[in-house]
Specification:
Strand content: 15-25%
Order of helices and strands: HEHEHHEEHEEHEEEHEHHEH
Helix content: 25-40%
Number of strands: 11
Structural class: alpha/beta
C-alpha cells in the first residue's frame, strides 16, 4: 500500500512539473541540515524561515549558504540572534559591502564587507561556530564548487561566495580565483549530507518566470543566471528532503526596504511545512 501511495505521489509531481523527493529512512537519530540560497537583499527572507524553526524548537545539526544565504547562515551559526540579524539586514545597503573601482575583472571591490561581517558574526572561524557551517564559492578556473567548512577564517569564504560575476571582482583565496557560490551550486544541500545531516531543508528564493526587458547590463546578466539556475535545480533538489520556496519572486535584488514582507513570506512558507518536519522527529 505504501509503495502504491509513493507511486501516485511521484506521478502527481511529474504531472504538475514538481519532482517529489523523500528522505531515505534512517535508523540513526535525525539530524536536520538547512541550506540557504542567494538573492542579495532577498536573503533577509531566511530570517523568517529560521525564526519559525526556532519557534517549534527544531534542532539544526548544520547549516550552509551561498551568496546572501552564506551571510545569514554564517551569522546564525556564529550565535547571532535572529533579531540582531534582522536589524543588520534592514539597515544594510549596497555601499556597506561594495566600493566602486576600475578593473577589468569587476566594477566593485568587496573588502568593505569585512566591517559589515565583523558586526554580523559573533565568532570568525569555522571551528568556533556553535552550529556546523559550510560556505560555498565557485572556482573560476575549474568551474567546480569549493566548499569551506570545519577550519579557518570564515570572512573571506563569505566574500567569495557573494562575488557576483561582473559586478564584484573575484576573491583570490588559497590559490583559487573565486566567485559567487550559486554559479556552481545554487543551493548547497549536498555538503550538508557529507556533514552528517539525514534530512536537508533547502530554502530557495524563487525568481520570476518572466520579466520585462532588462534596463541595464547587470539586469541582463542577472536574468541569464536566473534562467540557468532554473534549468539546473534538479541537482540540489535530489539532495533535499524538503524545499521551501517563500513567495518573494516579485521583490527586486536591491529592495532592502521590503525586509518585513520578505521575512513574513519566509515565516509563512515554513509554518506550512512544520507538520512534515515534526513528523521526521517522531
Amino acid at each position: 500500500m505504501r509503495q502504491t501511495l509513493r507511486g501516485l505521489a511521484a506521478a502527481a509531481g511529474a504531472l504538475f512539473g514538481k519532482q517529489i523527493y523523500e528522505p531515505k529512512p534512517v535508523k540513526a537519530p535525525v539530524r536536520i541540515g538547512v541550506a540557504l540560497g542567494g538573492g542579495f537583499a532577498r536573503g533577509v527572507t531566511h530570517v523568517g524561515v529560521l525564526r519559525v524553526l526556532e519557534k517549534y524548537k527544531i534542532p539544526i545539526h548544520c547549516i550552509s549558504g551561498v551568496s546572501a544565504g552564506a551571510i545569514v547562515a554564517s551569522a546564525y551559526a556564529s550565535g547571532t540572534s535572529l533579531d540582531e540579524i534582522e536589524r543588520i539586514s534592514r539597515s544594510m545597503r549596497f555601499k556597506d559591502v561594495a566600493g566602486w573601482t576600475i578593473s577589468m575583472l569587476g566594477l566593485a571591490r568587496s573588502e568593505r564587507m569585512d566591517k559589515f561581517l565583523d558586526r554580523a558574526l559573533r565568532v570568525k572561524k569555522f571551528e568556533e561556530m556553535p552550529i556546523r557551517l559550510a560556505v560555498v564559492a565557485t572556482d573560476v578556473r575549474s568551474g567546480a564548487a569549493t566548499v569551506f567548512r570545519d577550519l579557518g577564517d570564515v570572512k573571506d569564504p563569505i566574500r567569495a561566495s557573494c562575488c557576483y560575476p561582473g559586478l564584484f571582482q573575484p576573491v583570490r583565496l588559497k590559490g583559487r580565483l573565486l566567485v559567487d557560490g550559486a554559479i556552481a551550486m545554487d543551493l548547497p544541500a549536498e555538503p550538508l549530507l557529507s556533514m552528517g545531516a539525514t534530512h536537508v531543508i533547502s530554502v530557495s528564493l524563487p525568481t520570476p518566470l518572466e520579466v520585462d526587458d532588462p534596463s541595464n547590463l547587470l539586469a541582463v546578466v542577472n536574468r541569464c543566471f536566473q534562467i540557468l539556475q532554473r534549468r539546473t535545480e534538479h541537482e540540489w533538489r535530489k539532495h533535499s528532503a524538503l524545499v521551501l520556496e517563500p513567495e518573494v519572486s516579485k521583490v527586486g535584488w536591491d529592495e532592502f526596504l521590503k525586509a518585513g514582507d520578505m521575512i513574513a513570506a519566509g515565516e509563512a512558507a515554513t509554518e506550512a511545512a512544520i507538520p512534515q518536519i515534526l513528523s521526521w522527529l517522531k
